[in-house]
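The records we work with from here on pair a chain with its fold. These numbers are not coordinates but entries in a learned vocabulary of local backbone shapes. To see the layout at work, look at the sequence and tokens printed below.

. . .
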Amino acid sequence: MAGLARQHHLGEHRATIVLGGGDIGCVAVVAAFGLLPPGIGLLIGPYATLGTTIGAVLLALAVAVPVLAFRYESHRAERIPRLHVFDGGLVLTHPGTHRTAAHPWRDLRTVERTRFVTVGQAGTPRTVHRLELHVRGGPLLCSVGGVHDTALIRRLAAAGGAQV
């Protein structure tokens, strides 16, 4: 990544932003607790062999799902793309596929988006601000939402000649 940045004369490294996440752990725990009651009920209930077998399978899944999910989550660093921000542009890396692309600011376009979403069961309204980075006249590369990250990218992109 550093060699590619030097090759494209991107200057000094300013930040590395992890794009996305996994967060599968909570879902796995909820799934496990959802499998426990029917599994126990089928296992200890007055059911024939089929009911007992299904109960045992559900209990096994209740144990296996969180273990496998946390194992999968522990390797997330190998899957999640990263945005490396430099004075003269950015480098986007995709660890799982080993794809790396450098983009000087002058070849990019920034778009600020504001969306209103509802969160949770109560439908609490929330405003979400994202800064999208596009290839000029081309596709979306990525978007960032952190206040510090967007301020830094907005400042460097404007100074580097990105279309704002």
